[in-house]
Structure formats: structure tokens, C-alpha cells
Amino acid sequence: MERLGTVAARIPHKGAALLRRLTRRSSSNFAFAFLFLRPEQRDALKQVYEFCRVVDDVVDERAPGPEGVAEAAARLDEWRREVGRIYAGAAGEFLDPPRTDLGRALAQTHRVFRYPREAFDEIIEGCAMDLERSTYADMDELLLYCHRVASCVGFLCIAIFGDTSEPAQRYAKHLGLALQLTNILRDIGEDAGRGRVYVPLALLERHDLSLQDIFDQRYDDRFVALATDFADAAEREYRAAWEALRQADGRSLLPAEIMGRTYYRILREIRARGYNVFTRRAALRRRDKLKVAALAIARAGFLGKE
Questions:
Q1: Which of 122, 136, 211, 261 could cysteine-pair with 152, CB 3.0–4.6 Å?
Q2: What are 176-185's pLDDT values in tens digits?
Q3: Which domain holds residue 63?
């Protein structure tokens, strides 16, 4: 990839100023994306990600055993009802207003950004899948999970970013799948340590691998072949997202594109390491993230006229 200074030189004056802001203030992928949003958009995005964190924690931090599963299921049911309360007052006064601070905040920002309700509902269903199972039979099952926990987050985000056109929705769908597949590949070892394998059983069987091989973190030619197939699936989703982006509002979607390009670099890093995801977690240095952001700014034609 080009040096950061070379990339920055190709960006107009205002774009270079944005890059300087990134350099001074950003240390995470989310922080990079937040810098391109208005204050009300940043607040809304924080609420959406807080919702995702809360319902995910219901499952991940549950108590052990059947009692913990039952309690987590009950808490997810309460969040289903809270989503209903958020939308019940959309056309008028709340008869049963939201009961949580987060629910009340989402109800307020929904009036501005008009979130699609089904996205919240599906995110909860995706978390429920983690409660109900620890493996997936085939790629179709896994992609349903990825759609719920990632693409549906994207549908909420594009409402905040300001482009909910059909191409933008296709972009959010495919980018969400790509990001989640990248996460799954990167975290195979960590997930196995928690007794969970997201790689579909059919793919394991195709490459003569067992669940125990993954739990044992067996790195051999079979695993490399499996990981290559999985990475190729993620790559196809990135390509589909970028094709859709050509017809969408690239400037509005710049925060998502910075995130997407960052995770695509992580996928490339995994490939470069020969898919050995067991010994070290793939991540980008801050300088590499800045390069990605600079190129995303340049691609988006972010500034227009000086």
C-alpha cells in the first residue's frame, strides 16, 4: 500500500484537514467513523451500538447452566417488548412508554432518523441464536445469523448516515456479512475457547476436519484450505458491497466505508499470515488504519469544491 504521505498529497485541502483530525483524535475503528458525523448522528450511532452491546451481553454474560439460559431468554423477551414500546408512540403519545434510558433515547432519535423496526427485532433474534446453539450446519444457517447480527446493524446505520436507497441497503447487507465473516475467521481460536464454533459443520466435513480439531486449535493444511474457502466467501461479500456502493451516496456512507476497508485489510492480514488465527489475533496498527481512512476519503470524493 502507498505511504500515508503519498495518499494525503492526493487529497484536497479540506480532506487533508480531516486526515489530521483522524491522526490526532482516533485510536479505534469506531472513532474513525464517528469523526465524519454530525453530533446528532454520533449520538444516534452510539445508541444503536449500545443496544447491540446490551442485548449481546444478555447472552454472553449469562449465568451458567439451564437457569442462566432461561434468565437470558426472559431478558431478551423484555427487550423485544421494549422495542415494541419504542415504536408504539411513533405516531402519537406513548400509552406504554419505554422503560429504560436507552429505550427512551432510541425513541427520540427514531423520530429524526426513522429506524427500520425489523432491524432491531432481527438483532435480538440473532442474539437468541447464540443462546440456542453453538454450531451451524451449513453456510445458509451461518449467513442468516450474520444477517441478523451485522447486516441489520448496517440498516440502522445507513438510516443515521442519510442514504436508505436500494443500493445503500444492498451495500449495508453485503458489508455486514463481510465484516461478520471476517470477525468469525479472525476469532476462530477465541470462540473455540468458549466452546463455540461458527464455521459451518458442512465446511469442516468438506475439509476432513472435526469440531475437536477446532477446539484443539489444530493448524495444518486442512485448516488452511478451510480458512481459504471461508476468506473467499468474505471476499465475495466485500466485492458485492463495493459494487452496490457505486450506485449509492458514497459521501454519506463514508463512515461505513472506512470501517469496511479497515476490516478488509484485516482479512488481507489473515491471508498474509497463512491463516494462522490461533497464535496471534490479526489487527492493524494505528498508522495502517490512517492509510485506510485516507484512501476511503479519496475514493468518496468527500470534499467537492474548495
A1: 122
A2: 999 999 999 9
A3: 37-117
